[in-house]
Amino acid sequence: MTASAATEGAQPPVLGPGVIFVAGPAGAGKGTLATEIMKRYGLPPERCISSGDVLRQALARVESDPTYAATFQKLHNINSDVRILSHPLVDPLVPELMEQKAEVLRDFLAERRGVPPETVDTQTTTQFEWFVFCMERRVYLPSVWLNSIFSAHMRSIPDLDSVPVILDGTPRRPDEAPFILNLMRDAGMPFLHLFHMHVEDVEELVARTARRNRSDDSADAVRHSYAFYEGTIRKTIETLQELFPENTTNLDATLPPEVVTAAAFHALDHSEPKPVPADAARRAAARLDLALV
Per-residue pLDDT for 282 more than 80? Predict the structure, then answer.
């Protein structure tokens, strides 16, 4: 009998306000675990949040609603009349990415502007065009935008002071960790638990993701994603683990899903929520070699 089946029909346990982090490499089963947690604790789907989903939802609304698009640009300082390279807070990676993606970017701009590709100067790319390009071509989005959009979404969620949320795969980048800790502290959301799902063999992930039969799950894409996890995400997650060791559980994601789920339920049932200290973001930033926030 699975853990979820064992509790079927029973009154779900109660979780108070706070954040549950579900972290690990792509294909480790983060979404599956998050779904099982929602089922057991009676949480609606909108309480499970990933930055990728938030960004995709924002883009879809921007593309379909011109009125919202204008509000969106003003709210997040992503303007259709300002060049991305003149943005005062431009991510230092943008010029490098523009050079790497020059040909693809030129074709994107030509199609979007309705002009021949040979007439396009990529240096004229606007902030809003770069945002759409990053989203549609899965290019690294400037952190200042990601954090702004994510913050607005989080603040729009009702009952943050009484009902928990699950962050699926967030944070990923180092600067997201102190940002999220500040957000939690300001909203009075305690740290409930961090589940770090481990799959140490990348070829195991390749095999697992192949079974999902998704178009973006090519072997090369999975290996690239795992390299990013090892080089960037793992240190970010380990920083949160160091700050909240009693509220962290490492899970062997190669075990059967019901075993992983049962371990997660046990951890949630036996851990106490921890308020986010005032200096948590500063300590995280220092650990990640970031400028103090």
Answer: yes
